[in-house]
């Protein structure tokens, strides 16, 4: 198995986008109304028996302790209390929270809400590399089925925020690197690179080995070239 260590220094230069306009638009997006569930996180002191008794007394089922938290329990509304009105009504939520907190052994109380997760995709620049559309690891638009839909490094949102990795040194152990490639040569560090197969300082790949070169491209490729 081919094995080489090569070092890359990140000196990416990203064309500036209208970052101010992007964040202004993000801040002006209306906040989505919270959608509450029938699950509650409740801090109960006194052990599992006390948690069970309190849950039953207030129309909940104690689903057990939450992870490694010693006194936090997952309370779930019983079927008789679990309807849309009780879950979403602010009055009902406040009432149930107040009655739970009235228990001497109860501290923290929070009804759990749904969280909407979305891929924050935004094209920050007009990419000038004619092969940009083929670089699926950083710009995956060709796969249309889950779980690979839009699966990539999601680097562009970081670029928008000004993160370039400038000055970061990255070490990669792989099957070699085509370090003379125009995409890589300016960011390749020969001083610390080594070929463990031939015991020399040139980790160029052998034959059809290309995985290390591809990984290096994802880390330090030059932008907007052919």
From TrEMBL:
Residues 165-225 form the Peptidase S8/S53 domain. GO terms for cellular component: Golgi membrane; trans-Golgi network. The keyword Hydrolase applies. Residues 1-17 form the signal peptide. Residues 39-116 form the Peptidase S8 pro-domain domain. SUPFAM superfamilies: Protease propeptides/inhibitors (SSF54897), Subtilisin-like (SSF52743). Keywords: Disulfide bond, Hydrolase, Protease, Serine protease, Signal. One of its GO terms (molecular function) is serine-type endopeptidase activity. GO terms for biological process: protein processing. PANTHER family: FURIN-LIKE PROTEASE 2, PROPROTEIN CONVERTASE SUBTILISIN/KEXIN-RELATED. Belongs to the peptidase S8 family. Furin subfamily. This is Peptidase S8/S53 domain-containing protein.
